[in-house]
Input
Amino acid sequence: MKKYAIIALALLLIPAMAFANGAKEEKDEYVFATDATWPPFEYIDEDGNLTGFEVELVPMIGDAIGKTFVVENIPWDTIFAGLRNGQYDAVASGVTVTEERKATIDFSTPINKQGQVLIINADDAGQIASIDALPEGAKVGVQIGTTGDFALEAYPVEIRRYDDIGLAIEDLLNGNLEGAVCDSLIAGDFVLKNENYSDRLVIAGEPFTSEDIAIGVQKGNAELLGMINEGLQILMDNGEFDALKAKWGII
Output
């Protein structure tokens, strides 16, 4: 009787010993954070649905490798702290790869290249041909904590920081700013596609930065990074990645 009891106890201890030796259960679901204020990458549509290029791309990457990848809407000002604290597994939110961010975040294969541009009122197009033409002390709006925010520090302007780039655009239209800065794709969406703004706003000059956009994971999370890159490569090879970019008007 004791013999069978010992065998049963040993069988019960095997999972615990495996866990103690570093084995861990495979995750059923991976959560990717996004700040849904950046069309066409991620935004809330008229019906209240979370949508956009990256919102569709993330689950496609998961499907390509047989994993479940989901997207959750997280405010930008807390998005990187939440990644560091393990509140979610990755960030897919139009994130620009920078040397500073690479110190704490590992990045996937780039999913797009873009730059920062200056948006101005159409009436000012004759006076402001580029960001370099802004007068010293000009008030320029930007979303706080973005690469546009950092890039503006190199210019002699008064930086007005907002939680949402849409708020900066509204202030620009109301005459409270001389310009607003954001990613070229986002600017194109506001200036070229939004019927409320298309005849009132223009982009001044060319992008004044060049940036890679990628998906970020916690520093050292090689397993998840490998899965993301594997899924991306499958989508790039089979044409689904380019088809999705074309759907969202991303060049």
In short: The first helix runs from residue 2 to 20.
